[in-house]
Queue: 2 jobs
Job 1
Amino acid sequence: MITKPKGTYDILPDESRSWAKLEDTIRKICKLYNYKEIRTPIFESFDVFHRDQNDTSDMVTKETYDFKDRSDRQITLRPEGTAGVARAFVENKLYVDNPVSKLFYMGPMFRYERPQKGRNRQFNQFGVEALGSDSPLIDAEVISLGASLIRALGLKDIKVKINSLGDEESRNSYRDVLVKHFSSHVDDLCEDCKVRLEKNPLRILDCKVDRDKDFFKTAPKINDYLNKESKERFDAVLEALDGMDLQYEVDYNLVRGLDYYCHTVFELEANIPEFGAGNVLGAGGRYDKLISDLGGPKTPSVGMAFGLERLLLANSLSGKKLVNEDTIHAYFIALGEKAAKETTKIMNVCRIGGLSCDMDYLSGSLKSQFKKADKNNAMFTLILGDNELEEFKINIKDNRTDEQETISLYDVYPYIVNKLNKAALGACAGCDKKEK
Ligand code: AMP
């Protein structure tokens, strides 16, 4: 038997409706904030992700799927969405018509990580990118969009962790003191952090290995090194969040995994006890130089990404179901070949009229066909045998009331529609009385 590659999984029919509903929810929220979808290739040129020799992130240095295609082109499966969107933004000159592009994407990403619970080698992300504005208000908008999504999934106690990495000048002065601090503890640093000390010392603050060591806690904090403009900008982001009643917590150790971030960085958490430490549902930050690094004009930008698997898991733990039980309108039980042929004609009429129907193509026994009607959660079960067929009639059972009737084959469609309409009217307060 051929099995799926390690770190991948199948989304089976029972789960795929939740995926579709999550995607639908995301699209609705993006519409509320006026973000438009962009779809970029799943594989890109190697250079899209490996531009910066100093990039020390695990994702770029250790986890990309890189390969040569049959014409010897160096290709990388996308490990994240931002770089591909940025490449497309520059290549298609999206900046020409719109000074600000508000985009979102959704789809599979690939990272060669050690597979474990909640970590896969193929996984899905949703992300937004707001390109072209350096307003602190748009940073707050992106965070607010993320919080709205979490709320729509029925999760409460949303926590925004936020920090500012400041502008280049601020980061340079912070970097100097940080290098000085960690250099005096170099022997205690993990191997990765020794490299980070050389290439990107801010990333040491992200280290999961060294995090709890004492010299970590005494490390200088970025907020003491933000220059006046960076401080004012950060305050403006926080003020905008206050204005939207979004709770946040400033975390001076938050630097985020990617090397291109500046100013605002943030993580969005929901209180999910089952998740333990892995509460982060989405995260992002401002990246003002990425677009120009890729050959585009100066384009200050901010973005955020969520893992869809984690959002679904979080939703299933929240108690607010994304989808109700799957149902169909009608399940047909045909007894005999002639009845089966006639049933396909009736189903065709019903489907054209918008009713979902199915029948048993295995010609099973009456009992097994009833079971299938049940399994499909059919609202109506229809039984057509030779006797009924001779009289051009069919037996129909309303599974919600157990009411049974024999009706003309011509009446199947109007009968079901009429019953559904009555039920819909009955569901609206006061209408049921009129109906009686
Ligand atoms: P990142 O792009 O690393 O900031 O990740 C953003 C979100 O994507 C995380 O919060 C996770 O929910 C999700 N994510 C990242 N890597 C994986 C993975 N290997 N498997 C599943 N989800 C992931």
Job 2
Amino acid sequence: MIEGIYLDNNATTMVAPEVVEEMLPYFTEQFGNPSSLHQFGDKVGRALKTARKQIQTLLGAEHDSEIIFTSCGTESDSTAILSALRAQPDRKEIITTVVEHPAVLTLCENLEKDGYKVHYLKVDKRGRLDMQEYKSLLSDKVAVVSVMWANNETGTLFPVEEMAVWAHEASVMFHTDAVQAVGKVPLNLKESSIDMLSLSGHKLHAPKGVGVLYLRRGVRFRPLLRGGHQERGRRAGTENVTSIIGLGKAAEMAMESMEYEHTFVQAMRDRLEQGILESVPHAFVTGDPRNRLPNTCNIAFEYIEGEAILLLLNKMGIAASSGSACTSGSLEPSHVMRAMDIPYTAAHGSIRFSLSRYNKMEDVEKVIEAVPPIVAQLRKLSPYWGEDGPVEEPEKAFAPTYA
Ligand code: PLP
């Protein structure tokens, strides 16, 4: 089991022991190619069908043929967006948000170079979208809307089901990157207008290197990978059978533990947040605290660097993650923190704690004890922190360094 305290489950999760157990026979005893017509292939083909059904159930999809296995969330995102563009060559616009994962943002930036017009919906200080702006952009020039279900840094949830209805009213395809939402929020796709959805195995206690693209029946589609007839010709390449079988089991377990996520995991997250905020001054929650994933909290510690906090936490065996990305020697706050207009003095010190059902309340109590002395120690070294509080106008003093 896990050594240390792992609170970085939005980055990746431990593969559940039950999932590993389910996978093992498919490396050695049941190693056939699911497309082969002999008994070796047939057994594996049937196991693949079971996994497809398990995913269908988790997503609340109409039919198991709507499940396409891919290699990861990134592949599912690319396939969805590129398919929508290729299937409707007369439509040259995309609507997305400024806070998407790079899996969508980097693709969109490249599509702009190819001549597509991308509309990036902005967010407010709490990370919420402006629905009026969204509605005003929908038109018959738009090929696809791609909006994440839950933000990976803050956990903030977007009203994608409602947004998909508006997209359909304007005859526009709707895709959602639900990589962080699947397994943490209940889904019922057959009752929604969502056309395409991406998920990734390693975020829900299945292995890395396996994902799913949900494709509603009847939605026009162009494959990204062409070749063999696997996945009904929609994604060529022999399936990653063992991981898919693991993902099926993980989906079944996610269904069973959904209530636990919204009771015990959420209670641990709330206790962690309350414990830290009570004992650390000049710290606040980023994102929308009333509308977010049950496992995620992102706290901005003003006047210090997130990386320094992470390093000291790591020394104590505690793993979390920061909202900054180290690019070319300078620490820039993440695009999500910048989009929410979090002041520089706080955006640099944002830490994401993301929990799972494998965490324990006693671990949370240990983290609550560990954080305040670390923050106090770092603030003593900060030029923006005086004897017993921030120096005057820290905002102005801090900003030019990172401008
Ligand atoms: N989308 C979101 C919201 C994510 O958080 C991630 C991974 O962190 C991805 C996409 C990419 O998933 P994968 O690592 O499976 O490619």
